[in-house]
């Protein structure tokens, strides 16, 4: 099942308080980035955030599940309607994740 583009845009808008949010289509679902750092996935109209200790401390409910078959567990975020909560979670998560490596151009 693919994602609804309206849902993807809604989630991106809800996270926008954390920084520049970009979504990229990946195999029918979406990767979601903040300031160039991938922090989660949107799969089948559900938001999944990479697990970090700071993210765990901010979660209202800890629900780990894989976003797709064979994937590692991510935090499943059921409440995507609270803009402040999502922005805070995304900001803290991205600070705890490694920065993306620069791609070399040949």
Which secondary structure elements does this structure contain, and how are they paired or packed?
Blueprint: H1 5-15, E1 21-26, E2 29-34, E3 37-43, E4 46-49, H2 53-58, E5 64-65, E6 74-77, H3 83-96
Antiparallel strand pairs: 1-2, 2-3, 3-4, 4-6, 5-6
Q: How would you describe this structure to a colleague?
A:
This protein is of the alpha+beta class. The chain has a single domain, classed as YgaC/TfoX-N like chaperone (Yope Regulator, Chain: A, 2-Layer Sandwich), CATH 3.30.1460. Helix content is 29%, strand content 27%. Strands 1-2-3-4-6-5 form a six-stranded antiparallel beta sheet. A hairpin with a 2-residue loop joins strand 1 and strand 2. The radius of gyration is 13 Å and the shape is globular.
Task: Please provide a brief summary of the model.
With 106 residues, this protein is of the alpha+beta class.
Q: Report the count of strand segments.
A: 6
Helical content (DSSP H or I, runs of 4+): 25-40%
Question: What is the helix/strand order?
Answer: HEEEEHEEH
Poorly predicted spans? none
CATH topology, anyone? Answer: Yope Regulator, Chain: A
Biggest sheet strand order reads 1-2-3-4-6-5
Would you identify the CATH architecture? 2-Layer Sandwich
CATH-assigned homologous superfamily = YgaC/TfoX-N like chaperone
What Rg is obtained from the alpha carbons, in whole angstroms?
Answer: 13 Å
The description of the largest β-sheet is:
6 strands, antiparallel
């Amino acid at each position: 099942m693919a994602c609804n583009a309206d849902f993807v845009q809604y989630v991106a808008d809800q996270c926008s308080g954390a920084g520049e949010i970009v979504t990229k289509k990946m195999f029918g679902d979406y990767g979601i980035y903040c300031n160039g750092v991938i922090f989660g996935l949107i799969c089948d109209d559900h938001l999944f955030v990479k697990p970090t200790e700071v993210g765990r401390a901010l979660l209202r409910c800890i629900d780990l599940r894989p976003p797709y078959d064979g994937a590692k567990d991510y935090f499943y975020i059921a409440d995507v309607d609270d803009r402040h909560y999502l922005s805070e979670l995304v900001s803290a998560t991205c600070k705890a994740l490694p920065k993306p490596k620069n791609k070399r151009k040949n």
